Every structure is written in C-alpha cells, then in structure tokens.
Amino acid sequence: MTAPLLQLDELRLHFDIGGGLFARRHRIQAVDGVSFSLEAGEAFGLVGESGCGKSSLAKAILHLHRPSGGKVAFDGTDLGALGPEQWRPLRRRIQYVFQDPLAALDPRMTVVDQVAEALAIHGIGDRAAQQARAFSQLELVGLSHEQGRKYPHALSGGQRQRAVLARALVLEPDLLICDEPLSALDVSIQAQVVNLLVELRERLKVTLLFISHDLSLVRHLCSRVAVMYSSRIVELGHADALFDRPRHPYTRALVAAIPVPEPREREPELIASGEPPSLLNPPPGCRFHTRCPAATAQCRAEAPPLIPLADGRLAACHLER
Amino acid sequence: MQPALLEVRDLTLSFLTPAGPISILRGVDLTISEGEIVGLVGESGSGKSLTCLSLLRLLGERARLGGRISFLGRDIGALAEHELVALRGREIAMIVQEPQSALNPVQTVGRQLVEAIGLSAANGGARGHDRAEQLLRDVGLPDPKARLSAYPHELSGGQAQRVLIAMMLARGPKLLLADEPTTALDVTVQAQILALLRRLRRDHGMAILLVTHDLGVVAETCDRVAVMYCGRIVESGPVGAIFRAPRHPYTVGLLGARPRIDHRVAKLVAMDGVVPDPRDLPPGCSFAPRCQRASARCAQVPPWQVDAVDRGFACHHPVGGDATP
C-alpha cells in the first residue's frame, strides 16, 4: 500500500480569546485531536453542523491557522516543519475553494486574468501561454471566452464558483479542499456545479476533501465520510454504510433529521433534542452525552476513543464497543 | 374539506423603478384552508417572500398590487392602514429566515414577549411575565425562566426562532407565514422547529404557509404544495400526488436536482441555464428556455389546467402525457 496523500495525526487547533486587563482568557478548542488520512484519488467528506470545527480543521490542514498540536503530513512531508519557501510548491499542489466565491475573487481583475495569475505566481509558462491556458480551463468549467473577460460582479453565483474552481484546478493540484462550495447556490445551479465537480474529479484524478453540512451532497460526492461533532470525529467510514446504517447516536440523529423529498411520517423519537455545546465550555466525557438518549454514567465521565467496529468503520461511542 | 381561510386570486405585484415597472408576481392563485400547512417552493427570486409580504401589504410606496386577497371573506386589498395594523400579527403573523434580525437587540426577550402579550390584551405586570414564561415553555425553549432576562445576542439561531414563534403565539393568529424559518439553522435544530410548527397546527389549529426552497422540508411538513417560478404558480396540489407524479417539468427538475440521503443517485439531473431576470422575461412560459419539452406553443402563456381534485399545473407539455388543449 502506498503512503496516504494526506495524513492528520492528533491534529489540534485552539484559539485564545479575551484576556484584557480584567477579562479572563478563554480557550476555544476548535479541533481536538483529529486523525484521519486520505488516499490519493479518493473523495473524502467531512460533515458536521455549524461551529463543530470543520472549517477550522481545513484551515489547520492548510496551516492558515498554525495547529496547536499534532501533525499534518502531505505526501510524506510534515507540513509543520516547512518554511515559507518550502511551502510555495505545496501551495500549488493543495488548492482550496471556500463558500463565498465573491470573497475569493478579486473584484478589480477579470476572471481570466485571475486564472492566469495563478499560473504566473507559480511561474508556469509565459504570458501568452498563461492566457491561453486560463481560457481553456474556463471552458472546461463551462465559462465562455466572453464570460472569462468579465469582472466577478458581472457573473452569477454559479458562474463565480465555476471561475474559482477553474483557478484552483488550473494548477493541477493533487488535493482539492472544498469548504461548503455549493451552499450559497440555488438548487438548480447547485446541481450543475455538482455534476461539473464529479466530472472534473474523475477526469483530473484529483483527491477531494469535501467539507459540508449537507449530508445528501456528501453522500453523492464522496466514498468515505467523517462526522465531526464539537471539534472531534465521532464516526468515520464508507459513505453508503455510514448513511444507511449510522452507528454513533449523533450520526443517527443527523441522518434522521435530513428531510427526504418523499412524503412520510417522521419518527419523532429520532429528533435529537437540544443543540450542540459551546466550544468555550464543552461538556466532559462524550460531547454528545447532553443530547444522547442512551447516555450512561460512563458517557458523562469518559471521552470515548475512536475505535474500529466489526465492519471496519470507526466510531467513538461507549455503547458501540 | 375545511373552509378556505385565505383565498388569493390573480395576485399581481410590480415595483415602479426609474427604468419602468418590474413585474414580480404575475397572477398568483393560492388557497389555504383552516389548519392546513401549505408549502410555497421555488428558487431565489421566484417571488415567494414577496407573496408573503403582499398578503400583509408590507410593500412600500413603489409597489403596485393587483388581484384579490380574501382572508376570512375580507378583502385585504381594500383595508385601510389602521385595519391592516390590527390584522398584522393578530390574525396573520410572519416569521422570517433570520430571527435575530426580527428581535430588538437592546431589549430582553422577556420585555419583548410581554409587549407582544400586552398588544393582545390589557394585562401587564406579573401576569404578562408568567404568560411569557409559559409561552417560552410551549415552544420548547429550555430553562424559560432564565431566558426571559436574556438578550437576543445570547440566543442561538434556533432559540431565537423559538422566541419569535412564542411572540407570534402570544397573539394567537389564525395564519402563520413562515418564510424560510429553518434555512439558517442546523439540520437537527431544523427538525425540532419543523416538529414545533406541526404541533402548532395540531394544538392551535393554526394554518401555515411555509416558504422554502427545500422539497424535503415540504414533504415532511406540508399537506399541500405550490411550486413557484418567475412570479407564477406552475403547479400545485396535495404533497403526496405532487411528489409521486409531478406534472410540470420545473417540479420534475427541482426533484431531480438534489441528491438524496436515503440512497445514492447515479447522476443529478441538472436543469440547463439560470432563472431569468424579472426585467427580461421570455414571452409565454417563463420556464420554456430551460425546458427540454418546450415547443413553439410555449411562447403562449400556458393556461392553468385542473388535473384532479385540488390539483393543477400550467404547462403545454406536462410530464405524463400532453394536456388537453
């Protein structure tokens, strides 16, 4: 077996907030000991509700926020040990797409110039070659030459997200990290971009880390999935098994809460009560115990480790051992 | 069948702009019976929210409203401003996508609730306070007594939505307009709020117009659904019938565009193109430029066709066999 393309080992990220003259310092543990790895070529989904730490995890992987502990290895290289110069070639190989394309694009540059600029930064080709390459990449994501010559404000939300994708993919990255890339789009436009993403991933053989709160989308796009709750991974496994037969009580509640476009009677007992805990003051033991219908004394005292179950998936639940 | 609570016939809405009027609603028909939950579905810009605001006549000076809105037999279009003030909140209430924006940030939850209670009856002081606590308990807010002294910024989105629902309940309206009430919420909290809306209908007999872009939310919550596109209702009927056998190609398109949580779909069926600009609508059927079934006939506005009891659509080439001309 080859080494994984991306490996997270007990990754931690905390933020210290407050701490003025009289104020107490508070620590937010946004990512608390997350380990998983991505094989080259796979599509891996990371799901969770807002505030669970999934975006912080993406930023810690990219070292946009320096991890407070643990390790990120990309293609065998420990990213924490790199200086700025050594980062540059890796910034080409790891690309990312965030939710708001308008914030990601420069309002004063045409779209094609922004795609070409990515090539220029990494010194790929001369000016003419960069322009030509940028136009052909835009075509690949369904934007015409005419649209490429426009400024971001003149494009629709779907077109902007296509432009961001073109800019990320023109560098032929090995890993594409997408953080809620489709959440701001209307249903019919979202489907177009989803199909594009599926097609491009297959054609370009890029490894995908897809971060989303939209479980249906993740099931559609990804073969493996990790579920994050209150800064920790609670379940990880193959998408079909995980969504068809969720084992962690949180995953079960999450899957049961997704509305299905088919009239049916919802089983009310499956609706999780309460809300996710604050990361400022997470509960001891299993973080889900405050909402879990089956929680025991052990759950309230001891954090369950993420361990393999019989079918190979990982789950962090005292009741599933 | 229950008697109609709200009957909207040929509702039109346009806004006057320096460049000429922009037509937003172009003949909306909608009926809501007592105790019924009706879903209004469509993408951004289809006119869902403005339909709600039209029902309350909260439109501003540049709006021109046409057609007839009849609520319990009264013509809302003919009401004077003071009659509208009496109607809003007390008979028809509204909750919105961002509950935080609807709450006063510098007043406690309790004070805002007591104010809402005071509007419905002259019972201030301690009684108002008790009633406020009871209302918060009714909407399932944990630790309601402590919450009364909280400010809106101390609430999560789900809690703020519950407070708004409590304020709405204080005045006991017969119809609730819920405009994307769960879109900004996490999915487990969304499930709680949808369950609460169903409970309001069951316990208080409240009718609800639920505006959403999520067909899953409609399927699990509503009795009937109306699908909106470019300011028109293109299909409506009982939820079961519409989801089992949609007739309008746009409804089919919406259903095919979303992946499912309960099974893996091979490929999403994406509709081509984008929703047209309201200033530049195609003649006839607005969906025609994106529709695979479109023909020359679609340059004419398709008439509304009744398909079965309480079910209809507006399409020249409906799915499942051409309609009678």
Model description:
The complex is a heterodimer of chains A (321) and B (325). Chain A is of the alpha/beta class. Chain A is 34% helix and 22% strand. In chain A, helix 4 (111-121) packs across helix 5, helix 4 runs parallel beside helix 7 and helix 5 (127-140) crosses helix 7. Chain A has twelve helices and twelve strands. In chain A, the strands form two sheets. An eight-stranded mixed beta sheet of chain A has the order 6-7-8-3-9-10-12-11, sandwiched between helices. In chain A, strands 2-1-4-5 form a four-stranded antiparallel beta sheet. Chain B is an alpha/beta fold. Chain B folds into two domains: 4-91 and 173-313, Rossmann fold, CATH 3.40.50; 95-172, no CATH class. Chain B has helices at residues 48-56, 81-87, 99-102, 109-120, 125-138, 144-147, 157-170, 187-204, 215-221, 239-244, 249-257; strands at 4-17, 20-33, 37-41, 63-71, 74-75, 92-95, 175-179, 207-212, 224-229, 232-238, 305-308, 311-313. In chain B, strands 6-7-8-3-9-10-12-11 form an eight-stranded mixed beta sheet, with helices on both faces. Chain B has a four-stranded antiparallel beta sheet with strand order 2-1-4-5, with helices on one face. Chain B is globular, with a radius of gyration of 21 Å. Chains A and B meet through helix 8, helix 9, helix 10 and helix 11 of A and helix 8, helix 9, helix 10 and helix 11 of B.
Secondary-structure blueprint of this entry?
The complex is a heterodimer of chains A (about 325) and B (about 325).
Chain A (H helix, E strand, L loop, with lengths): L5 E13 L6 E14 L4 E5 L6 H8 L7 E6 L2 E2 L5 H10 E4 L3 H4 L6 H11 L5 H14 L4 H4 L8 H13 L5 E5 L7 H18 L2 E6 L2 H7 L2 E6 L2 E7 H6 L4 H9 L39 H5 L5 E2 L5 E2 L6
Parallel strand pairs in A: 3-8, 3-9, 6-7, 7-8
Antiparallel strand pairs in A: 1-2, 1-4, 4-5, 9-10, 10-12, 11-12
Helix pairs in contact in A: 4-5, 4-7, 5-7
Chain B lengths: L3 E14 L2 E14 L3 E5 L6 H9 L6 E9 L2 E2 L5 H7 L4 E4 L3 H4 L6 H12 L4 H14 L5 H4 L9 H14 L4 E5 L7 H18 L2 E6 L2 H7 L2 E6 L2 E7 H6 L4 H9 L47 E4 L2 E3 L12
Parallel strand pairs in B: 3-8, 3-9, 6-7, 7-8
Antiparallel strand pairs in B: 1-2, 1-4, 4-5, 9-10, 10-12, 11-12
